[in-house]
Amino acid sequence: SRASIPHRNQTHPPETKTHPPETRTRKTQRMALIYEVNLSVDKEIEQEYETWLTAHIEEMVAIEGFEGARLYRRRAEDEGQEEGDKVLWTVLYSVRDRPALQSYFDLHAPRMRQQGLSLFSGRFTASRRILLSPRVFSSPSV
Questions:
Q1: What is the pLDDT of residues 2-17, one digit of tens each?
Q2: SS3 131
Q3: Residue 7: what pLDDT?
Q4: Which of 37, 69, 138, 142 is the least buried, fewest Cβ under 10 Å from its Cβ?
Q5: Which of helix, strand or coil describes residue 103?
Q6: CA distance 79 to 77
Q7: pLDDT tens-place string over residues 24-51
Q8: How far apart are CA 138 and CA 142, in angstroms?
Q9: What pTM, to 2 d.p., does this model score?
């Protein structure tokens, strides 16, 4: 076997702080998911849309299976775009599981989406994604 070369007059490699794998990463036990909605809204209607969006989010989290939401503002320049006449938001809804999300799609989505279209048709765009099976990573110092 080959001997390792000591580091600067040390006979042993420098100590490294290690943590058992279960403290560095944790897979959630349930199949919680994130329902992500990305919005691009005309700046001229920013205040009106944000007021409506806040009420809309509150209505969404009252639906069975929706556990909470976070509203984030995005910057166009962070996405490789020039700042223009749009305001960018992302809403992350935490949903208990896929059946709860499917129930939303079947029972509520058409009405909820139509509200925004009726008020702001042609003044915003929305795209949606479903993020499954989260793994949570924490800093070793936490």
A1: 444 444 444 444 444 4
A2: strand
A3: 44
A4: 142
A5: helix
A6: 5
A7: 444 444 558 999 999 999 999 999 999 9
A8: 7
A9: 0.75
